[in-house]
Design goal:
Layout: E1 25-29, E2 32-35, E3 40-43, H1 46-49, H2 58-70, H3 81-94, E4 100-104, H4 107-122, E5 128-132, H5 141-146, E6 163-166, H6 181-199, E7 204-209, H7 224-234, E8 238-242, E9 268-271, E10 283-287, H8 289-295, H9 310-325, H10 328-349, E11 353-358, E12 364-371, E13 376-377, H11 386-397, E14 400-401, E15 403-405, E16 408-411, H12 419-436
Helix pairs in contact: 2-9, 3-9, 4-8, 6-7, 10-12, 11-12
Length: about 450
């Protein structure tokens, strides 16, 4: 029997089903994937900013095959060698000695469990949680409430989940009208501290924030995260770092908070995406020794059938070893600086570029505006600007897949991308900006 077209049988996320008409991918290798019509496409967004190792990394594929030959599945009630080994490596890489790891299926349930554990550790079953406006932590009902995302704001009521949103450290459009980025970052952190005081620290369980990369397109000033850490620590409130996108070299460190050393160390962090390089689904909640100790004699009221799935953990272990063996964290930092420098040159040539953010690793945000003086966005957030959509189509025709949201280009190529391919894509972007925004070049 012939297989019906995918558009007639599958629901696709974050899209209007009647408009979905994407080509079929039949293969992939390194930084490229191959379409059914034979076209080879450079993956300049690492899919959903998750294929940090590129596609079909041979060491990860081999580890999956070897584990499948030994043991595909055993419930979390039993021990599993790859699960134990991966947890040990994550605690080692994060410096969370004496901590614990809880494995999930992805980033959303990692964030949901992190909040659950924080409330349990603090003895506050209904403890308040602060998150940011214009943030994204997942699309379950609980994580939609945690997210300050315009797309899902009407689907979940934050107050019903004990969540309060605070202004983001968006220096380009500072909520406090500051034109100094570092000052804006400090004010954003101070605001969180003020809200903790207003409610009383004894009623606040945690603060959940993205340290760096996110689909919101905000890269916080360096003043922000250490000040946020200092404020939460001073009041005994747990800080959860959502490292789902920013972890595993994306921002030039194993985990983005490590850029600030111990001054940025969270109490809990959540992982997914780059954890297996997207070869298999896997998320994780990494707990500090102090938080883990608070849970040691408590019943964990949670359960996932595939928690710590052996195949996924084997993939994660191989991925972590590949990042280290190939020195990809350093490579991301080096190539990220080169990409950022080139993007700044593009900003000088194209007035449609209001600001370029990033530069810590292979992640950068290019914000497009109608007018640099007024900073009017190219389209109201989070609507995709038609001219930007046309640019994406031309890029795909040229063999490059780019990601965009609203008036933002989100650049996040695999950490294994060749330098020539990186330079060629930035050259293509230069030409496409001149083509689609000639009056702003």
């Amino acid at each position: 029997m012939a297989t019906r077209p995918e558009r007639d049988t599958v629901l696709h996320s974050w899209t209007v089903q009647a408009r979905w008409d994407a080509p079929t991918v039949v293969g992939a290798s390194g930084a490229y994937f191959v379409l059914a019509d034979g076209r080879r496409i450079l993956d300049f967004s690492s899919q959903s900013e998750c294929s940090n190792l590129g596609h079909q990394h041979p060491a990860v594929v081999a580890a999956i095959k070897a584990q499948a030959d030994r043991l595909c599945y055993i419930a979390n009630a039993w021990g599993a060698e790859p699960r134990a080994a991966l947890a040990d490596r994550l605690l080692e890489r994060s410096g969370f000695q004496g901590g614990r790891v809880f494995f999930t299926l992805g980033g959303a349930d990692a964030n949901e469990h992190a909040v659950k554990f924080a409330r349990l550790a603090r003895g506050l079953p209904l403890g308040r949680v602060f998150t940011r406006d214009r943030s994204y932590h997942g699309a379950t009902y609980a994580t939609m409430a945690l997210s300050g995302d315009a797309r899902s704001g009407d689907a979940a009521r934050p107050a019903a989940y004990g969540v309060e949103h605070v202004p983001p450290p968006y220096a380009y459009r500072c909520p406090w009208d500051s034109r100094d980025a570092e000052d804006c970052g400090r004010r954003a952190a101070e605001y969180v501290t003020q809200r903790i005081k207003a409610h009383g620290a004894a009623q606040v369980a945690a603060v959940l924030m993205e340290p760096n990369a996110g689909t919101n397109g905000i890269v916080a000033p360096d003043s922000y995260w250490p000040a946020l850490r200092a404020g939460t620590r001073a009041h005994g409130v747990l800080l959860i770092a959502d490292e789902v996108m920013s972890g595993f070299g994306r921002c030039g460190e194993w985990f983005a908070w490590q850029r600030y050393g111990d001054a940025g160390r969270p109490d809990v962090m959540t992982l997914a995406k780059g954890l297996t390089g997207a070869h298999l689904p896997l998320g994780a909640v990494v707990l500090s020794a102090e938080v883990a100790a608070a849970l040691e004699h408590e019943m964990l009221q949670t359960g996932l059938t595939y928690c710590g799935h052996p195949l996924s953990c084997a993939a994660g272990l191989a991925a972590v070893e590949a990042y280290a063996a190939e020195d990809l964290i350093t490579r991301s930092r080096t190539l990220g600086r080169e990409m950022f420098t080139t993007l700044q040159l593009l900003q000088e040539r194209h007035r449609v570029i209001g600001e370029v953010r990033g530069g810590h690793g292979l992640f950068a945000v290019v914000e497009l505006v109608r007018d640099r003086a007024t900073r009017e966005p190219l389209a109201p957030w989070p609507q995709l600007a038609p001219a930007l959509a046309a640019l994406l189509r031309d890029a795909l025709d040229a063999g490059v897949s780019l990601a965009a949201r609203g008036n933002l280009l989100l650049l996040a190529p695999p950490l294994i991308i060749e330098e020539r391919a990186l330079a060629d894509t930035l050259g293509l972007l230069d030409r496409l900006l001149a083509r689609h925004f000639p009056s702003r070049s």
